[in-house]
Specification:
Blueprint (H helix, E strand, L loop, with lengths): L13 E10 L2 E8 L5 E5 H7 L1 H10 L5 H9 L15
Antiparallel strand pairs: 1-2, 2-3
Length: about 90
C-alpha cells in the first residue's frame, strides 16, 4: 500500500490559496496545487515560509478579519432551543 502525500509533501508547486480556516486552534489555508485538481489544508506558517507571494495575493483579495475563528469556536457551544422559555408560567 502506497503512502499518500498531502500538502507540501506532494512535491507539487502551490498554485493558489482557495480559502482560510481555523482547525485545532491554528490558521490553515486550503491550497490548490499545480498539475492537479486536488487541494489540501496546510498550516499558514508553512505557506508563509514556502510561498509568501501566494499568501499576500490571498489576503489582497480575501481579507480575513478573524470571523472564521469566532465561527469555529461558537460551533462548540450548546445550541439554543427557542422553544424553551426562561420564565415559568403558573
Amino acid at each position: 500500500m502506497a503512502h499518500a502525500h498531502y500538502g507540501f509533501d506532494r512535491g507539487l508547486p502551490p498554485q493558489k490559496i482557495l480559502s482560510a480556516t481555523y482547525a485545532k486552534g491554528q490558521l490553515m489555508f486550503l491550497m490548490k496545487w499545480q498539475g492537479t485538481d486536488v487541494a489540501d489544508l496546510v498550516l499558514a506558517t508553512d505557506a508563509m515560509d514556502r510561498c509568501p507571494h501566494l499568501v499576500m495575493q490571498f489576503y489582497a483579495v480575501s481579507p480575513v478579519d478573524g470571523s472564521a475563528q469566532e465561527v469555529n469556536e461558537e460551533a462548540d457551544a450548546e445550541p439554543i432551543n427557542d422553544n424553551q422559555s426562561s420564565v415559568e408560567e403558573d
